[in-house]
Amino acid sequence: MINTRSQDIADLTNVEFHIVGCGAIGSSVAIQLARLGADNFHLYDFDKVGIENVGVSQYIDEDIGKSKVNALYTHIKKIECSIEVKPTNSKFESYSGTKDGILILGLDSMKARMDIVELLAQCPDKPNIVIDGRMGAEHYQQYIYKNITLAQYKKNWYSDEDSDSEPCTRKATSYCSNMSGSFISNSIKNIVMKQPYFKQIMFNFSTLILDKKGLVS
Question: Model pTM?
Fold first, then answer.
């Protein structure tokens, strides 16, 4: 059993994880959740692995040119072959999971995030929990929504034009993506195990300043 050391801390079996965007944040979350014992993944991304992804994501040189979802599928299966993984090599267009599922947004584009939330708002069986992880250079933002609505999401949303002029992961490093994945994985553990968690987390990697808001107990 791969999670022998953590099984008393986190039981993530039988929880559906839908990871939209399998780059720096998404791939790190997937690998960490798999090592914690998660056994059901749905991966969504239409992009391929480039050499720039190797330095900040969970991919390796031999993954270059492969679709991100298929490469990540392989890495998860190497951790534990019995894990159920469904890769979707396209944009996220609908949610077909359960209400108890957890959906994780790890995209580069703010517009793409809003498009997905608009889709979820029209879905009668939308996931109970949506976690939005954003990484701009060395600053990380995380928002957790329960029964997400457009009104909720718009409070913390801004356009791509109003964000940093650099692409989301332009100045990212491996420690940024791994820490971002750790923040999300820890929050998921707390949610699934019915422990307190924060709705908002801000962390600056340069200053090591952590800001937490909205404790849910």
Answer: 0.93
